[in-house]
Amino acid sequence: MQSLLRVNDLSIGFGSNKPTVDRVSFTVNAGETLALVGESGSGKTLSCRAILRILPSSAQIRSGEIVLNCGGNDIDLAKLGERKLRSIRGDRVSMIFQEPMRSLSPLHRIGDQVGEVLKLHRNSSESVAKREVLAEFERVGFNDPERTYCAYPFELSGGMQQRAMIAMATVAKPELLIADEPTTALDMTTQAQVLGLLKKLQAESGMALILVTHDLGVVANMADQVVVMNKGRVMEAGSSDLVLGSPAHPYTRKLFAAAPVIPEFVDPAAQPRQSDIILSLRDVSKTYGVRQGSAWSPGTTIQAVNGVNLDVPRGKVVAIVGESGSGKSTCARIALGAESSDAGGQVLFKESPQADAIEVQSLNPMDRCDFQRKAQMVFQDPHSSLSPRMQIVDALTEPLDIHGIGTPAERRDRAIELLEQVGLDPSMLRRYPHAFSGGQRQRLSIARALALRPRLLVCDEPTSALDVSVQAQILDLLEDIRDRLQLSYLFISHDLAVVARIADEVAVMRRGRIIEQAPPELLLANPRHPYTQALIAAHPEPDIHRPIDLETVAMGAGEPDTWPDAFRYTDGAAPPLKQFESNHLVRTHA
Predict the structure, then answer these.
(1) How are beta strands 3-14 and 584-587 bridged, if at all?
(2) Residue 317 pairs with which residues in a beta bridge?
(3) CA torsion 258→263→268→274, rounded to 10°?
(4) pTM value > 0.70
(5) Domain 277-525: which topology?
(6) C-alpha–C-alpha distance, residues 481 and 475, integer Å
(7) pLDDT tens string 261-303
(8) In the chain, which segments carry CATH 3.40.50.300?
(9) Alpha-carbon distance 113 to 123, whole Å?
(10) Given 64, 252, 293, 382, which is the most exposed site by the fewest CB atoms within 10 A?
(11) What class does CATH assign to 3-92+174-256?
């Protein structure tokens, strides 16, 4: 079989430094999926950007060739002129970027952005481009293509934005599609649907696919060939059944060891519920008003959280799991008093077993400031939560400064102590956030949250955007800190494998409601609700013999009126949350 793309001895460097990508070679055949696997900084994305020559201005291709077969003729893209290269980008070779919100223009409608590809490469008229774009929107799974065509990016969820990016990349029917971490920040059910969509589009069009990822579970479900990269070099390469079935290189085995998997529990023993509760949510709901497109149109409301009851025992980890838009983060903000719940809801906090419970929602400014010393949040994106203009010493001492704690010397000593607690060197105090890796920035975010010695941490997706090996390190750190400092966690996640490792209790949310709740060993051994079953089925396993069950995912992740009768909503009203067995609650009519 003649190869569609050959990359031979590719080296890329910055300035006079040693190569960041060092003599990388791989081949992609028509209709084949090649997975580039490795941690952040391994050179995967840089290698793929070199194919389209969209490298940073300071990067240089120092050696190698990138040969694309175009209608039987080999063209070296590394030496091709810019004008001819523009005719290939987006036409013969397209790319899906990792973060669609940063790649889509916020000022232009989705349909216009996707249609631009056809106008540039096919000279299509407005009407022809719109017709083809609407057909592509239908192919990638938009229920209402017309509405999507007129929507702006911020009006779509993360999964829908990614589908729009896929439509933009595939509308011109490319021969090669490069997908750079297309599912990293998506929840599990959306990830499974996007991966299924890519496979479907590939089968229909026969295009080749280069999939950039750090998730071996995704690789097992998608790849024909695998190239494992580390620090700019190829560590191992071969067919997926050989690399995944019998990894030869220690680095590949390390990635396997770090890959999160959902454990199998057999006959789990029921654990007694703890009566010492540090945080309690009672009948918490949250409704938002949403304006329509016209100032004269009546507004509408969205029920983000609906009647949530949840307790966090002292010294334990309670996790809330669900897809984007399920209300997880809204619950977290309400728990910390950053959002107010609707009338009738209560958030109760007890600093110690002997203390009186305080009502977080009704605190005055002085008492709220005191409460915020005892309850802190670790955010999902440390790059956004750490100021790029502040040195680390200032970021760590700022909470102490705000609350008037200690002298400048004592605050600096506390900053050193915090760095040591999260496994970083005190010599890093004078650095800025951009000088750290993603995992190190998340450690810094945890250190800042610990500055005031809180009793409760709310962790909002703290590992979702991290490599699997870094994710494992952060979970180790959170477990160590919890045990050493006797902290309690409210842990927000979309990944049941992560939750199974760290949580003592799991509440599964869907569209603002808790639909199932139990300790992880009970929940994973005997999931009752179809949505919980979908979350489990959607988790990609690093085993080519255990593909994602897309049928189960589609059933559970579908509309509530498509669920089995025992779980179906009646006239929009959800069934009650009932006790199925000891410590196991399920929202069901049965």
Answers:
(1) unpaired
(2) 489
(3) 50
(4) yes
(5) Rossmann fold (3.40.50)
(6) 10
(7) 887 765 566 566 678 999 999 999 999 876 655 556 666 788 8
(8) 3-92+174-256, 277-525
(9) 15
(10) 293
(11) alpha beta
